[in-house]
């Protein structure tokens, strides 16, 4: 009887430890952006072999947990989205701006985990503003928008 009770205590402690360890591994994982109408993950070795994985914005976190080798993320928002507030929330500083015929692109440094070097500068936030919507990517928007 004592051995059974002891074995149950040990088993319970091991199960609790496994759950705690799993939670510690999973909890730090989160997405870079929230509230988007679509979400993409970039998987691979930056632009060399980047694959784009499209996720439902509501289940993007769950999708992120199943991916390995994530090298970036992208969220698409409607045209009236307040991207300047997003930049403020991320502590973004514009490094350079690129105006094209159909868009304005802001390349920034911000509090985000992914990084890439462009024109000798470290960039980790790329915001593309177009008439039909806004995309925010980290470190940049791979594959275009």
Helix content: 25-40%
Mean pLDDT: 86
Biggest sheet record = 7 strands, antiparallel
Strand content: 35-45%
Q: Note poorly predicted spans.
A: none
Radius of gyration over alpha carbons? 20 Å
Amino- and carboxy-terminal Cα gap: 67 Å
Total DSSP helices: 3
Give a description of the structure.
The protein has 145 residues and is an alpha+beta fold. The protein contains three helices and nine strands. The strands form two sheets. Strands 2-1-3-9-8-5-4 form a seven-stranded antiparallel beta sheet, covered by helices on one side. Strands 6-7 form a two-stranded antiparallel ribbon. Strand 8 and strand 9 form a beta hairpin. The radius of gyration is 20 Å and the shape is elongated. The N and C termini lie far apart (67 Å).
Write out key terms for the chains shown.
elongated, 145 residues, 3 helices, single chain, alpha+beta
In short:
The chain has 145 residues and is α+β, with helices and mostly antiparallel strands.
Q: How would the blueprint of this fold be written?
A:
Layout: H1 2-26, E1 38-43, E2 51-55, H2 60-66, E3 70-77, H3 83-89, E4 93-99, E5 103-109, E6 116-118, E7 121-123, E8 125-130, E9 133-138
Antiparallel strand pairs: 1-2, 1-3, 3-9, 4-5, 5-8, 6-7, 8-9
